[in-house]
Every structure is written in structure tokens, then in C-alpha cells.
Amino acid sequence: MNLPADTVTPYSANPFVFLFSIAAIVAVSLYFAYGAVDRMGLEVRSMDATVVDKQYNPSRQTYNTTIAGGRVWTQSYETSGSYVVTLRIDGAQTVGLISKQLFDSLKTGDHVQAKVRRTRVSRRLETVGVTRDPLVRLEE
Predict the structure, then answer these.
(1) Which tens digits make up the pLDDT trace of 71-109?
(2) Residue 9 in domain
(3) pLDDT for 70-81, tens place per residue?
């Protein structure tokens, strides 16, 4: 079978698309490799922290509409509320998710124990957990 000279093959159609696809795959692979090297297997340490700020993010409902087979299909998604504290640890600030009970008991300036890990490359503090400092009494 002889192909005419003007027949389009996958590589002759548009070389930019082929090269762009390869570049995109390499970029995504490098991004995930960076994340793995930066965060995997880090030591978690317990450190003293000071509460700088508190924030409650209420739950909300969002909708996603898809048209499949000529039919409209709408799904609702509900995100749960989150309780967030901003902490100061050794002069650096980081955030942590906490329970409602702990959120209600904390005030700005309170001391807590935070389990944190420092990333390898970016040197950021990531909060793994927050508990109330056992040495500080709750004022009732």
C-alpha cells in the first residue's frame, strides 16, 4: 500500500503538539518528584507554639453540572467547616487544623504544643497536630 505524499501521520500533523505533550509530562513528573523529595519521611517534633490568630471556615455547598449523553446531571458537594489556628513557632508562622473543642478553648496568645515537621528543600514548617499545653491551666 502506497501512501500519497500529502498523507498526514501523527508526527507530521503538528510537531508542536507532540513536543508540548512531552514537555507537560516531564514538568508534571518533576513537580511530583520535588514534592516527594521535599516532604517524604520527615521527622515530626513536638514544639512550643503561641496562638497568633484563629479562623473558622464555615461549611458550604457547591454544585457541579455535567452534560452526558444529552442529559444534564447536577451534583452537589458539601465541604465541612474547618477550625484553623495560626501559630508562631521560633519566630516562624504556620497554620494548623484543630477540633472545635480546642478551637473554643483557645485565645490569642495562648501556648500550645504543636507537632511539626520542616520540609527539606523549602524549609517550611508543616503542622501535623496541635494540643493544649498541659502546663497551662484553663481559666474558668
Answers:
(1) 998 888 888 899 999 999 988 999 999 999 999 999 999
(2) no
(3) 899 888 888 889
CATH of the domain at 74: 2.40.50
Query: What is the three-class DSSP state of 126?
Result: strand
Q: Whole domain around residue 81: which residue ranges?
A: 44-132
pLDDT in tens, 2-13: 655 566 666 666
Backbone phi and psi for residue 73, each to the nearest 5 degrees, phi listed first: -130, 115
| C-alpha–C-alpha distance, residues 55 and 115, integer Å | 19
Q: Round to whole Å and give the CA distance between 106 and 133.
A: 11
Which runs of consecutive H residues, i.e. helices, occur in the chain?
15-39, 100-105
111 found inside a domain: yes
Rounded to two decimals, the pTM is 0.65
Tally of CB atoms within 10 A around 71:
7
What's the grid cell of residue 2? Answer: 502506497
Beta strands in the chain (DSSP E): 45-57, 60-68, 71-79, 82-89, 92-98, 111-118, 125-132
Per the CB < 8 A criterion, the answer to whether 128 and 116 are in contact is yes
